[in-house]
Amino acid sequence: MLTFEQFFERIHQRQPFPWQRRVAEMVEGGQWPQAIHLPTSAGKTAVIDVWLWARSRGWSHVPRRLYYLIDRRSLVDAAAEYAERSSNLSGVPATVMRLRGGMDVAQDKWMLNPSASAMVSTTVDQLGSRLLGRAYGVGRFSAPIHTGLAGNDALIVVDEAHLVEPLRQTLDRVAALRQKALSPLSLPWQVVTMTATPTPGASTLGLSPDDLAHPLLAARFGARKLTILLAAGEAAAAAFVDKAIALRACGAEVVGVVVNRVALAREVHAKLSCHSDAMLLIGRARPFERDRLGTKLMAACGTQTRASARAPMFVVATQTIEVGLDLDFDALVTELAPISALRQRFGRLDRLGSVGLTHAAVIATVGSALPYDQDQLDAATKWLKQGLVNVEGVGKVIDLGVSSVATMSTPPAATRKRAPVLHAADLSLLFDVEVPFDVEPYLHGEVRGTDISVAWRAGLEAGNLDDWADVVERALPVSQEVISLPIRAARAWLSGRSAEVSDLETEFVEPEDPPKKRREAPTLTKPFVLWDGETAWVTSDTKSIRRGLLVVLPATDGGYDQFGWSPASTEPVVDLMAQGLVQARRWRGDNTRTSYAVPLATHLKGVGQFAEHFANGCGLSPEMTAALGEAGRLHDLGKNDPRFQLLLGATPNELLAKSGVIDPRVTREFAGIPPGWRHEIASVAARPESSPLVRYLIGTHHGRGRPWLPARPDVELWRQAGGHDWPTLHKDMVAEYGWWGLAYLEAVLRLADWARSAQEQEQAALIERAAA
Fold first, then answer.
1. Which CATH number fits domain 4-206: 3.40.50.300, 3.40.47.10, 3.30.70.2570, 3.75.10.10?
2. Where exactly are the structural domains of the chain?
3. C-beta neighbour count of 672 within 10 angstroms
4. What is the pLDDT of residues 122-172, one digit of tens each?
């Protein structure tokens, strides 16, 4: 077994920092720190290495899943790539998944073995909605699976936690509610926050004197970053361009220019492109193009490029650049922003301290303060001015290097958004998939509407609206071709109106008394497709756009260019899937059809074996393992109904679990099965002598029955299954296992069903290839 030092050196070719060793020592002792308080460039991402090393030791207290949360979709990839590299170089196997909205080719497959190590790089919306039973972008009946996995055997690491304060509060409440439940599963679950801003009341691990004396960290923290304060008039773009060019003339090769709004970023980029090579980075871009640009940026000005000559370049960006990207500028021009945001931006200036002395400018612009509050900008201005000193030959400057800032007065605290308090009574609504429940306030605080996922498809033509839903369902968008937009921006653009929020990277609270022009009737309404994780439909009603839905637009509608979201663009958008640039999503975990018939007995036996294998691998007790195995062997027993067998195309002498070439949608009416008939209810009715847990798991193995069993259309069958007492059974199961614990047991059985189905599809593919 490797020590952590040996493990880390194998990956990074150097010894870990002292604080990284201390985290590893804590984990070896059986606990993680509640909070890690470190300045930017201190190597916080190494918590992934600690987790991988701890998993390699086989310790039961180390969760199998690491959810690494960073609330910038463009940066989810950076954390995932770090984890993939560490896993490959260390030899510790771990599935790495990007979960940032939209549909992913592997978003179901990664879950097919809940006992395996998995690192999920994700966002507030994706993790938070899953943990609260409302997984965005997932069918409502599949959401409980994600809830079970996120709420058990999981380590949730929240990077830049000060940016996601409402979710942090909600995670604290989830931890308290889980503690009260005292589930017998005994699976580890913990939240670790990481930020340069201390978390009040948390047990915090920070820098020690040994860290400050470390040669690498001392160079990073001690680098001087002399900054002047400027004010721009109406022509804001010109001020940024002039200062960037002046810094270039003083010898800076790679000059970063960071502004708060997309329109300003585009204008500055266009002007600088006339003088030199310039790149533009905005957050609202498809990952496919953003990945390509990220690769170019890292090759041009990443931290590893200082060993060789770097070509002069301007990098223009919005606040999406603040976290995650390992860029290293020689000079910086930034728009005024809250101190927490400025800290992150200055973390990209001489990132490793190899230059030692750099120059920068903070420019205050006139007009709207969005996406920030004016009070935040005023407080930042006041604090910055307090730090100004006269430097000969330079004038009044403030040193925004890490060590210098640490000696100054405490920066103004950012305004803390509040999340509503999550109470135990709320959980009965959250975990009832039949009840509409908006979890948005628990994720982002009291805001009005945030982001929606948007994609483009060729083949959606105005004359064939009836076919649009089928076009989308045949080629479901994957995450690489999806962007996120504020809901209000999407609605305004589809209605032919301009909206101020469409220019922002982040959402903000809408004024209580919005301007009258926002209430005017739309002048134009464009049709589009909505996808809810199960079904696609065409609509022109922009009010139907809500959280968790994917909007698919005709490629000919425009709205996107090479850099990202561009409301003014009328050029057709490239359909990445039609061009073969992204892989189609073909497999779904709940698929009940294969290309050949699957015998019922074979399927039941296989699911039972998978369920027991997963339960053993996850460390569940022998009693729970036995219950899950029994539920797996009985879960589809209700399919032996003669009508259901006719639907599946079975011959008189066989019982099938899956239909082969017969399409159930065509034969249901012919078979005599009334709409709404559920085979899992028949399965429960067939085994009244089974234990309450087994009966409950059978009845919920398609996500229904939480807490009601549907009574129609066979009331007698419902009575035989104990439908009238089912809510009491559900309540008893929650009392015994807790909300998240019960969801986890459901997930293990359902994933066993999915895994067996995937195995059956693979077998079908082998048979087809052999026949060919």
1. 3.40.50.300
2. 4-206, 221-406, 447-565, 597-771
3. 14
4. 989 899 999 999 998 788 899 999 999 999 999 999 998 988 999 999 999
